[in-house]
Amino acid sequence: MNSLPDDRISAQLRALQLDYVARLPARTAEIAARFDALLDKWNSDEATELRRLVHNLAGSGASYGFPALSTEARLVERALDETLGAAPSADRLEAVRNALRRLVAAAVAVRLD
Amino acid sequence: MARPLEKVLYVEDEADIRAVAEIALVSLGGLQVQTCSNGLEAAGAVKRFAPDLVLLDVMMPGMDGVATLAALRADPALPPVPVAFMTARTLPDEVDQYMRLGAIGVIGKPFDPLKLAGEVRALWQKHQEQS
Description:
Shape of chain B: globular
CATH topology of chain B: Rossmann fold
Number of strands of chain B: 5
Order of helices and strands of chain A: HHHH
CATH superfamily of chain B: Response regulator
CATH architecture of chain B: 3-Layer(aba) Sandwich
Structural class of chain A: mainly alpha
Number of helices of chain A: 4
Oligomer: heterodimer
Strand content of chain B: 15-25%
Distance between the termini of chain B: 11 Å
Largest sheet of chain B: 5 strands, parallel
Strand content of chain A: under 5%
Radius of gyration of chain A: 16 Å
């Protein structure tokens, strides 16, 4: 196996990274909007879908070169885990909101080298 | 002598992760890779592609990775192809649980694209030595 990518592979990875970064604001906006909708009316299926979106961000961020994104998304995921099932308490929702704020900040801070 | 790893089926619902994994495994790792986006497609892909190894995301909507492994093992028409899970849940107890289910190993997510093929080959090598 090659340990370092050649120029062609580096270009492929760079193109993927650029596309990922370009879509990041829309992804975090969707996550925030879905959480706001849940605050209006709690729905376990929607909460599970929100968790899936956050999980995917956690699973991909570091692979695209943004480990802080994965770290913050993982914290949102854990906070959401505490809300799944019955209607969650205000404290647990506040914990999700705070974690989401940090995730959005991490997404805003993403910079390409 | 251990048979070299050539063909990998990767089952993952997240398109961004599939995309970077394909580059990591194909372009960097020199492997033949087929991907599918859910567990329901996995059995058909195993029949058509005949992979040496299946990499299974754990958390997928609908049929998750654990259920997919169970479905693959329950299908008498399929060969007992080795399966490794890819997951963020890599605490020792969690890994033990996956191994008890029949996985040959676990690869942590998020993964480093520059190291993924090496990790997959290391799992394969270990499995070959133990078989």
